[in-house]
User: Fold these one by one.
Assistant:
Number 1:
Amino acid sequence: MPTDILFEPIKFRSLEVKNRVWRSNVSGRFDNYDGSGNQARINWEVKFAKGGAGAILSSFVPVLMRGRIMPGYATIDRDDTIPFWRELGKRVHEHDCKFILQLSHGGRQRDIQGIEWDKGLSSTDKPDPLHGFECERMTKGQIQEAVEAFGEGARRARDAGLDGVELHGANGYLITQFLSSAINDRTDEYGGSLENRARFVLEVVRAIRRKVGDDFHLQMKISTTELCNAMTREPRGNTIKDSVEVCKWLQQAGVDAIHCSTGGYFAHPRNPAGDLPIEEFVKAYDSMVSSGAKTYRNYRLLRGKLTGRLFRQRWLKERGDVIEGLNLADSHAVKKAVSIPVLCTGGFQTASVIRKAIDAGQCDGVTIARSLIANPNLVELFRQGLDRAPKPCSYCNRCLVQVVENPLGCYDAARFDSREEMVREIMSVYQPSAFQ
Ligand SMILES: Cc1cc2nc3c(=O)[nH]c(=O)nc-3n(C[C@H](O)[C@H](O)[C@H](O)COP(=O)(O)O)c2cc1C
Ligand code: SF4
């Protein structure tokens, strides 16, 4: 029998992973206010390791407290976080699964701010266009501090025995805020031309290489097409042509793989591509009502019957009809331009679709977020020969909007026999507790 490409190992410069289907980054408020990690996060990640994913890409892990987007996410901003990450890595490794930590900084984009600071730091001083969160334009000293923090984050991840790091250079967070022609309005050497806008991330890559050497896996998640104008009045932002250039520079600077995503902010109609469950969204959004200049306006807009419906219609129009593999054309373009492996995220949940994409040279592997939240054993089901899970992810995006206030999990009640079963499954992440 010919071997199944999904289960062929994928080789990077200094890392080998057993298969081509990985868990994509998913954030949830499992941890403590101060950024120290909890048993619930370990339980959460182990679910996917047990389910057969080749590697797990962590949630958004802030490299500085001022770079966080929500309290309750484990951070990697100081050395005393290392033991937690070491334990998490060890528990994931028990299931022959790799763990790659996503080094992140939110810049001007966030969900709920903590008590330690008021304004975010960014390439610009324009507030974020979705919620109106204010920010300060970074000074060169602050830029250097952030570059150093990314390097130190990578050093801590290596010291914790993890398998590599990913730069969160996608979806509107700080690295995107420098890369993006829609967001970056600087007039110094960090703004203007594409080369100048890429200076920040390339300095980050070099700082990481200085700290961890050449034999520690480093990949970059990038929004290859930004479409910042999808729901806002911002310009369109970077195109695939711009991103292909950036990916070539990233490879030259020492990046080992590219992870293709989309959308110049988060959430975006095309990331995670799906529905907009307005009622749940309104409920979750009330916790943000007074935090940004536009949040109260948005809340009223979403709550209004007609305006809420119109907003959702626009969201669906901007999303388009194709969900599964919607970034494949972009990852294909990147793959043709670089010689390092390329991963693609966006809607995957059918074995034959993934196989076809890899066989066609559109990517070397895929990463999955929601369909694994819905079916954490999806990769094992593929291994058993199923093309899809019996109860697939509906792309309803309830998991996404619930996460602001509630534990991460699948909230599509139609996928469960009862509401009680759904809640039981969501709460299972708290077992075992830290005290058992
Ligand atoms: C609840 C939720 C949390 C997410 N958190 C992150 C994150 O922390 N970092 C990140 O890069 N992407 C994050 N994403 C995006 C996913 O990693 C993924 O790229 C995107 O959802 C598309 O994949 P999918 O269609 O398989 O869900 C998140 C998505 C969801 C639904
Ligand atoms: S709530 Fe469940 S079904 Fe809906 S998008 Fe999330 S994981 Fe998929």
Note: Residues 24-27, 59-60, 102, 168, 170-171, 221, 261, 271-272, 345-348, 368-371, 399-400, 403, 408 surround flavin mononucleotide (ligand 1) (CB under 6 Å).
Number 2:
Amino acid sequence: MEKEAVAALAHMLGWKIHLGHLTGGGTLANLEALWLARELGGGRRRVLASREAHYTHARMSAVLGMDFLPIEVDRNGRMDPAALARKLDEDVACVVATLGTTAQGAVDPLAEILPLARQVGAWVHGDAAYGGYFKLVATQYPTLAQDFAAIVDCDSVAIDPHKHGLQPYGCGAVLFRDPTVGRVYRHDSPYTYFSSEDLHLGEISLECSRPGAAAVALWATQRLLPLTPEGEFAQGLRAGLAAAAGLYHWVRESEDFVALAPPTLDIVVFGASMATASAASARARAILAAAAARDLHLALLRLPRDLAAAWWPGLAWDAEEVTVLRCCLLKPAHLAWLDAITTRLGAAGEATRTD
Ligand SMILES: Cc1ncc(COP(=O)(O)O)c(C=O)c1O
């Protein structure tokens, strides 16, 4: 079941052949990809990822004894290819492109990153832990099409069924484009793996024994909701994108909120309207509580000044960051609930007015 479930993910990414397996989550998936990049990198030691990449990359680089270097982003939170080009050299083992950052759902320009990384012979890893499933619908969205099409050329990809794949179990996945990289995992185990000549799942994973529940659950979900562009699952992804676009447009019209970078995926980040950064942060926290009291559960994000300032020209900066609101519209039902969401958000905004 695990092999079939992972093969369906590989098919979705556009790979006819692959090597891959499930993991406990995105962190383990990313660790294995970085480890392979190190093992096959001929002594190279550096990992480059955008400064908006998940902190797991810096942490796992340290675990692997590699040097992590954050790369600057543009005002949309996407890796800046020119900044990447300045840091690329023969010591770079791996360039990580994030397809769907944790904070804002930003998609790094993978189509531009790939040729740059190839110039120095670096491994390219796609951290699609959050956004990978959008590959199913990306051709229909001009802002996504190119970079999701480029996934097919990544050396490795992390994708988390426990994020967008409807799994309430710890369930990540790591996939490799070239199945022969399995040789790096190989070791002689004289007491197991007698059942087949093929590489056993325990031989292509850093973890050995793992629970099978995640594989069964994912396999069953994929049977019920196949990973096809026309299917119900893909329709749910489109609903999330539409809900995010709808919320963003509502925020733009509102007096209580400030629209920041337009959403690329289904995460919308917006500020609470105030004159200074510290007052906006305090009001965002008050809105979080006022919305929760109305059964609307949002999240907060601390946004560095340089990422917020471009979208918030009138704000007086009395702090180096501003706390803003973050809303993940990742369930298909969020689109049908958009009016209820904006009504409650509007009421929370009104309840926190100070003038
Ligand atoms: C882009 C990205 N990569 C990696 C991770 C880490 O995944 P996990 O929490 O499943 O280990 C996350 C989690 O939010 C993520 O969004």
Note: The pocket of pyridoxal-5'-phosphate is lined by residues 25-27, 30, 54, 56, 98, 100, 102, 127, 129-130, 160, 172 (CB under 6 Å).
